[in-house]
Amino acid sequence: AEGYVETRQGDGTYVAAELPDTGPERPRPPRFLHHGHDAARQQDDVARHYGLSRRGRDLAAISRPTASNGAAFSPGPDISAFPFDIWARLLTRFWRRPGRELAISLDPGGYPPLKSAIAAYLGAMRGVRCDPGQIIVVSGAQQAINLASQVLLDHGDQAMMEEPGYGGIRGALTAAGLRIALTPVDEEGLDIAAGEARAPLARMVCVAPSHQHPLGVVMSLRRRIALIEWARRRQAWILEDDYDSEYRYAGRPLAALQGLDPTGRVIYVGSFSKVLFPSLRLGYLVVPPDLVDAFISARRVLDDHAAMLAQPVLASFIDDGHFAAHVRRMRRLYGARQDALLAGAKQHLDGLLDIQADEAGMHLIAWPGPALKQPMDDIRVSRAANGDGVMTMPLSTSFVGKPMRQGLMLGYAAHDEDAIMAGAKRLSETIAAAP
Questions:
Q1: Most buried of 11, 236, 252, 379, CB within 10 angstroms?
Q2: Model pTM?
Q3: What CATH class has 325-433?
């Protein structure tokens, strides 16, 4: 009994008069300490030891971007350029003495004034046809995709996603228990004909037609029409992730798929986290009118509603014109920074990497150049660059199937021109020093 109890013959069992100084030894769980390339081995060890579900193993295996360390060319927006003074003033206005409608949220669809602001913005800027009642506020695009997947599809159903594509979407589909069919992306965007040939029974496709991640392709009008026709014919669903639509530097964007769809088969997904600041974690869906009740009921069961703290602040930020003004400023700023990256690449990386301008977005793809000593291993290059104070993301990690194309994703939005130029120089030195 480890000294904690004592027995007295013929009289029973009692707590010991003198207790031991130390507690009983508890078995320690095993520790799996692997790093770098062995991280996958660590996940396998943990999965075997603890008996993770298949879904848990699949989620753990999905590649996620490394957290930004602030070095060039880390991804994301320029947080220092966001008007936090205005945001703080609005926050104080609503939360110094909040009324009952804020402190006790009863609407799983979101704060009504925010839904009205989003609907007005989408109608004016993206050609989305909706009224505020069709808006459902969520905690980002991944939650939106997961919610739509659970409402519209059954466990084990097949859904298409872009190849290459964003790992967060793959995670959202996996979490919903769906089988994923990888669908190729070319210079016209997702190829629905190829996708249907590979997955004829697919019931949904996730697509970013405005600015595909990571390649930056804009889906052609011909492909958009073909995609809508596929959904009509198959009675399937399109989840339109309107990724990066705000930051466009040249040309006019094509209208959202949702505005082109006469059959109500498109679920439109948007997010404010990347446009404003990542920790905001607010996004939204636009669902067909007949599906609103089903989505609201599911939302009530899953997590009831998105955090209310930022919703009234964002509503006023949009209504008062601060959102539009911020996007205009960032367009000019990010456009100039893309130009700086192109200039830095020409000066320091010419021949080593091939980097072309993009009409939109917050990063560029650097493809292997003819002057490289050997074929690129983008994971090795990224690891070496990170050690030299430059953060790049390997393009190959956005692929699931084979072949995986090699390249580097270089974020420019968060870095001023001097940091971009210095980063290009350091990256050239890293590549030149590679064996």
A1: 236
A2: 0.86
A3: alpha beta
